[in-house]
Amino acid sequence: MTNWTIHDTLATMWERALEKKLGESATNYPIVALLGPRQSGKTTLAKVVFPQKAYVTLENPDSRTLALEDPRRFLEKYAKGAILDEVQRAPEIFSYLQAMVDEDPQPGRFILTGSQNFALMEKITQSLAGRIAILKLLPFSLEEIKRGSGKVPLLHKLLFTGGYPRIYDRKLNPTDWYGNYVETYLEKDVRILKAVGNLATFHKFARMCAGRCGQLVNLSGLGNDCGITHNTAKSWLSIMEASFILSQIPPHYKNFNKRLKKSPKLYFNDTGLLCYLLGITQEDELVTHPMRGAIFETFVFNEIVKRQLNAGRRSQVFFWQDKLGREIDFLIEKGPKLVAIEAKAGQTLTTDSFKNLSFWSQLTHTPPHDPYLVYAGGETQDRKRGHVVSWKDLAVLPI
């Protein structure tokens, strides 16, 4: 039995797909960083995979003070290794970690967790390059929910609830939990950043971003709606992205058509949080909500990203759109091949549902049955115009 096998005392029914990769990484690198949004399950996963390691969180004021004021002494307490939680709160320890693992590069010595990508990645680049494996953990994927609960959830309930583990583990009301989550995020992460002077305006900015989910980023429009400058909107968007709240995906760089859109598209990293920011308080509201298509598209995007990250790969998702509005929601590079994926929130497909995929096949000179269309229906099948994939069967996507 390896040191990263799940132990009964800590195991829960909510097994995470990243467990294996986390354990493997700790056999090859002296430091492993596990990054992701707050409450995505990083601490629980680290404790499950490394139950014998000492644990210390730098959210604790006493531990943080010691790490900030005397980082050498702080790390001497954990010379044999430890799980260091929320390490971005004490960035001074990174150069000392470098010296420690250079002296004793024992694999899996330190496990770092953090929820602020902007602070951690800067320090990792400066101090720990070549000494650290970086993994990212997002909230539950559909496969994790199916495995943990033993059943396939109803689609609207899944979209409304999102994937944050605590909601499932404690059967909490999603609206209440996300309300507290947003306040905690604003208090713990945003307040300490000098770039954000007005939390109420930032909260409004987050809601405006939610209303533009699945659309091209328009910084001027966001700024005007919130009463902030173009540069402030850009800065705040970067903060939300670095905190794993949302993602910006780029258009694919290959020039199939000169009349292309070049702005990124915006997606939230959890549909439950997206629903909360949109003011949706009941799952039944999704049936007729004008953002239903964007919410479903966000779900498909997140499932693709989670598949990539849980395999220990970098998340690489692109889109394609020309100035006439023809678009492909998601493009995935699979070796020399581009996998085209469209997301449709309807349960019934028509010939028109394949319009963009057919155009893409003609434009790229690829077989018409190559693309994938994910829809809200229940039947997965192959058609002449492409592979039709039920939202329940996203594991079949070649990503």
Describe the structure.
It is a single chain. The chain has 399 residues and is an alpha/beta fold. It folds into two domains: 19-136, 3-Layer(aba) Sandwich (Rossmann fold); 141-399, no CATH class. Helices cover 40% and strands 16% of the residues. The protein has helices at 19-25, 42-49, 61-69, 71-76, 93-103, 117-128, 142-149, 155-161, 165-169, 174-190, 199-211, 219-226, 230-242, 271-277, 292-310, 355-364, and strands at 31-35, 54-57, 82-85, 110-114, 132-136, 246-249, 265-268, 318-321, 327-334, 337-344, 372-375, 381-383, 386-390. Strands 8-9-10-11-13-12 form a six-stranded mixed β-sheet. The protein has a five-stranded parallel β-sheet with strand order 2-3-4-1-5, with helices on both faces. The two termini are 31 Å apart.
- Helix count, DSSP H or I runs of 4 or more residues: 16
Mean pLDDT: 90
What is the strand content? 15-25%
How does the helix and strand content classify structurally?
alpha/beta
The termini sit apart by: 31 Å
Largest sheet: 6 strands, mixed
Helix share, percent: 40-55%
The total domain count is 2
Give the low-confidence spans.
Answer: 1-11
**Globular, elongated, flat, extended or rod-shaped: what is the shape?**
globular
Instruction: Give the total of beta strands.
Output: 13
Rg estimate, integer Å: 22 Å
Give me the side-by-side strand order of the main sheet: 8-9-10-11-13-12
- What order do the helices and strands follow? HEHEHHEHEHEHHHHHHHEEHHEEEHEEE
